[in-house]
Amino acid sequence: MAYYFEEPSRTFNEYLLVPGYSSSDCTPEAVSLKTPLVKFNKGEEPTISLSIPMVSAIMQAVSDDGMAVALAQQGGLSFIYGSQSVEDQAAMVGRVKDHKAGFVRSDSNLPPTATLRDVVALKEKRGHTTMPITEDGRSQGKLLGIVTGRDYRLSRMSLDEPVTNFMTPREKLIVASAETSLKEANDIIWDNKLNSLPIVDSEDNLLYMVFRKDYEQHKSNPDELLDSHKRYLVGAGINTRDYTERVPALIDAGSDVLCIDSSEGYSEWQSRTIDWIRAHYGNSVKVGAGNVVDRDGFRFLAEAGADFIKVGIGGGSICITREQKGIGRGQATALIEVAAARDEYFQETGVYIPVCSDGGIVYDHHMTLALAMGADFMMLGRYFARFDESPTNKVNVNGNYMKEYWGEGSARARNWQRYDLGGAKKGMTFEEGVDSYVPYAGALKDNVSLTLSKIKSTMCNCGALTISELQEKAKLTVVSSTSIVEGGAHDVVLKDKTPYVSNTIH
Questions:
Q1: Ramachandran area for residue 136 (φ above 0: left; ψ -120 to 50: alpha; else beta)
Q2: ω before 291 within 30° of 0 (cis)?
Q3: How far apart are CA 432 and CA 179, in angstroms?
């Protein structure tokens, strides 16, 4: 007969943390949120760690190269969505790896045949005022000059004026060589009162631009997630159908870590995918797997060789898998069981496999609960979809600014590979996600900074300065429905009709 769990599966909203002793040394500034991304042996350090416990979901509406750069600057990591061609996904990964901290590949370039009309059109399209003029108009072409907003006046010039007549020519430009460090580039900028500095190779081909404002931004982001070459770290999603061609392309493009994107990970298809990666790349390629919701699922993927394991089925804000298929589990209950299985596996083998909580995050405090329950980091979709850096359109809906947001199982995304169960038939037969809007929230940096301040403050209330210490010391209590109501503003008339949680709901 069927197996029945004795306890109901619970969500994050059914738990609260009970405060613990907090010493005078326990301040938000002293809290470290560094956490492992991939598995490691006892007594060793993981090859990849995150500065903050956040990764962005493998979704069309969330994780492109723009999101990847912005999140890496804050210390997190994006997984570039896989529901696109192999070539396009690899190109996105490549664009992220083209970014060195403080060094930028120019995306606003023109050939010498261009006119002022082209300059104006490119400015409107890209929003940039500095435009390198290269021999072939490519970002890495031979540098011939630079046009800035100071080089022309629309009121006094014809739109047909050639750029060669008003650009600053190469011989008058101050440039630096490829070997120049960021500090040296900054010194050149300040010594010569420049706003930007072209970095060129020995043949005068443009490599990067260093901007005064970008250097200042770099210095203000001490948690940036960088590889050994000072490039931003980036991940990429893969599926269990075309991995034999997708994985090599992503590795060649520079992807630092991969993740199998699937609604359900307790599957032979995932073990086959991992086996193929191990056979061709050994342990040099890091790959996460999932999603699972219990001990059995974790053990299966751990023994298959996964570098991290995602937890969660049906808990996402745009996911309707539970409604459509009757499959899933409350996110809190699933995470607690899988985290216990991870600790058990670590005691048995000496191998620590990080657990990623994927779904079920509604408010900022749910993140702290997820960490306390055993998550090493969280994969977030709706949270990041609200920001400027997500790839979706900002639209006005009934007088409020919103961002478009859709699930990978929606008719819009049609990511059938994510829900594929094998067999000859390809494509989606029914939806497991919806097409929606989320409230626009502004810049990623500002919002992430606010969220992290809440997490750190709560950790201090629990007497913890690290995530592992929080997991050791945390005391959690199940709350009643009345307690949930009591936890918000109640029995008062709010001056602002907008709920106070509106800025933190995810």
A1: alpha
A2: yes
A3: 50
Dihedral, CA of residue 449, residue 450, residue 451 and residue 456, to nearest 10: 80
> Catalytic: which of 26, 259, 319, 462?
319
Asked if 76 and 55 touch (Cβ cutoff 8 Å), the reply is: yes
Domain boundaries for CATH 3.20.20.70 within the chain: 17-100+224-503
The question of whether 342 is a catalytic residue gets the answer no
CATH code of the domain made up of 116-219? 3.10.580.10
| Residue in this structure with the two tokens 């008062």, named with its chain if needed | 492
Q: Could you give phi then psi for residue 482, rounded to 5 degrees?
A: -65, -40
Pair of tokens at residue 203? 């043949």
pLDDT digits (tens, 9 = 90+) for 356-398: 999 999 999 999 999 999 999 999 999 999 999 999 989 999 8
Task: List every span in the chain annotated with CATH 3.10.580.10.
Answer: 116-219
- Contact 231/211 with Cβ under 8 angstroms? no
E strand map for 38-161:
40-41, 49-50, 54-56, 77-80, 131-134, 143-147
* Prediction pTM value: 0.82
How confident is residue 501, by pLDDT bands cut at 50, 70 and 90? very low
Cα(281)–Cα(283) distance, integer angstroms: 6
Condensed to tens digits (0 to 9), the pLDDT of residues 220-279 reads 678 999 998 888 999 999 999 999 999 999 999 999 999 999 878 999 999 999 999 999
Residue by residue, what is the 3-state secondary structure of 74-93?
A: HCCEEEECCCCCHHHHHHHH
Longest dimension (CA), the chain: 85
| Amino acid at site 6 | E
**Topology adopted by domain 17-100+224-503:** TIM Barrel (3.20.20)
Handedness of CA 478, 481, 482, 484 (dihedral sign): positive
Closest CA to 8 of 329, 362, 372: 329
Contact 286, 307 (CB under 8 A): yes
User: Catalytic pick from 329, 418, 460, 462?
Assistant: 418
Residues 186-195 have a mean pLDDT of 90
The whole-angstrom separation of Cα 257 and Cα 285 is 7
Q: How far is CA 432 from CA 60, 79, 429, 486, in A?
A: 15, 21, 10, 34
Structure tokens given for 406? 């859709």
Amino acid at 62: V
pLDDT in tens, 69-105: 999 999 999 999 999 999 999 999 999 998 777 788 8
Q: DSSP string of 324-341?
A: HH-----HHHHHHHHHHH
* DSSP E strand stretches across 141-286: 143-147, 168-169, 176-177, 196-200, 206-211, 235-238, 257-260
| Whether residue 319 lies in the annotated active site | yes
